[in-house]
Amino acid sequence: MGLANADLPSLRAALWARRSLRLARRRLQTQPVEDVVVPPPPKLPLAAERGVWAVLRRTDPTCLERAVVLQAWRGGHGAAPDVVIGVRGTGAAFEAHAWLDGEPDPQSSEFLEIARVPPR
User: Fewer beta carbons within 10 angstroms: which end of the chain, N or C?
Assistant: First the structure.
């Protein structure tokens, strides 16, 4: 989605996503993930999610930041999935990954689930 040809609801969703992403980044540095909350999204149609994705594609969030923002967006539209956190590997090859439960994520099957964060 180019912002020049975006509809108003998608632009409002993009603004919300940008603010929410900044908040999530700051809060994840000092708080446990289960305590990190971002504001609920404005009352917008679900199709405005394209504005959220436009921000997420352009700002290079971590998988956890992305999951927290999307969980809040989906929660504001009646379907709030858990954020799932998984790990794989050991030592220097250790990796962690976060995704939304039930969302297509090609990497999620490679990780052992260690935590779930329900919507707040």
Answer: C
What are 45-92's pLDDT values in tens digits? 999 999 999 999 999 999 999 999 999 999 999 988 999 999 998 788
Among the residues of 32-117, which ranges form H helices?
Answer: 49-59, 63-75
* pTM passes above 0.70: yes
Domains in the chain: boundaries:
3-117
Q: Residue type for 59, please?
A: T
Q: Are 41 and 74 in contact (CB under 8 A)?
A: no
**C-beta of residue 33 within 8 angstroms of C-beta of residue 62:** no
The phi-psi region of residue 91 (left if phi > 0; otherwise alpha if psi is between -120 and 50; otherwise beta) is left
Beta sheet of 112-117, edge-to-edge order: 95-100, 83-88, 112-117
**Dihedral of the alpha carbons of 114, 105, 40, 50, in degrees to the nearest 10:** 170
